Amino acid sequence: MTVPSVRLPSGDEMPTVGVGTWDIDGDTVRDAVRAALEAGYTHVDTAEGYMNESEIGDVLAEHDREELFLTSKVLPSNLGYESVIEACEVSLDRLGTDYLDLYLIHWPNPAISLRETLHAMETLHERGSVRNVGVSNFSAYQLSAAQHVSNVPIAVNQIEFHPWFQRPELVEYCRETDVVIEAAAPLARTEVFDDDVIQELADEYEKTPAQIALRWALENDVVVIPKSSSPEHVRENVELFDWELDESDHSRLDELDRDQPVYDTPARDWSGDVYGISE
Predict the structure, then answer these.
(1) Could you tell me which CATH number the domain at 5-262 has?
(2) Less crowded by CB within 10 Å, the N or C end of the chain?
(3) 270 φ, ψ to 5°?
(4) For the chain, what are the domain ranges?
(5) What are the start-end ranges of the H helices in 161-245?
């Protein structure tokens, strides 16, 4: 099976389905990533904050690196120039690779200059350590600021996106500026599985609720990186390309928007270490 891809500004091809690895580590993440690569995934998403890069590196060593698309992210506490460079080098070492296909600013940090962060990203890009630069959890306002000061195209904005949280204005801005939208938590951390419409369509199509939500996102031209600790579910989550939703059913899912995030809430808990904002 070959997963379709989307072209980034660099010309690189990014598979439209990847395996997410948030909140899993040890043998659980090894088994999930191994199952994904055996099932035909070639896109793996991680982050220094997930603290599982070394385990993922163990599995990647069993495969041809050039055949894979690998993403990691730098924590908001590490967005100073030297910290970005160091964080990337440590991630590369843990992952056992010389380069990342995509490196993302995991969260914006208003306490650190965005210009400084993106200057570091540009340095990593020039070195060949990072092939594409992106952001994560950026609003349209934050993304436009990044685009204004970056000398390297902002290729991707990885955001919370699922049937209950569709963010039309942010999505429209990304499309207008040729930024690929990647759905973090495309299943709303399983919360949408309880939605009556999604359950009804899962029964009708003889698919899982996850497959219904993921297929809908793909049909909206959004890249998805579902996470599961179950190898069986990992395999199911890429079985999305030999069927499609009827237009009327797709529209029913479009109508589910509640503007209801599961993690990207308006306020942040700035007391955590990861933000790097101390009193």
Answers:
(1) 3.20.20.100
(2) C
(3) -75, -5
(4) 5-262
(5) 168-176, 196-205, 209-219, 231-236
Taking residue 91's Cβ as centre, other Cβ atoms within 10 Å add up to 23
41 is annotated as an active-site residue: no
Q: Match 């992210």 to its residue by tokens.
A: 73
Strand partners, 180: 156
What tokens were used for 77? 């506490």
Beta strands 69-74 and 102-105, pairing class: parallel
**134 DSSP β-pair partners:** 104
Quote the CA–CA distance of 240 and 265 in Å, as a whole number: 29
Q: Mean of the pLDDT values across residues 214-243? A: 98
pTM score: 0.97
Which token pair is 48?
A: 């220094």
Query: What distance separates the 2 farthest-apart alpha carbons in the chain?
Result: 54
Query: Looking at 50, 103, 173, 275, which residue is catalytic?
Result: 50
Tens-digit pLDDT profile for residues 30-78: 999 999 999 999 999 999 999 999 999 999 999 999 999 999 999 999 9
Q: How far is CA 124 from the centre of its chain?
A: 20
Measured distance CA(130)–CA(56) in Å, rounded: 18
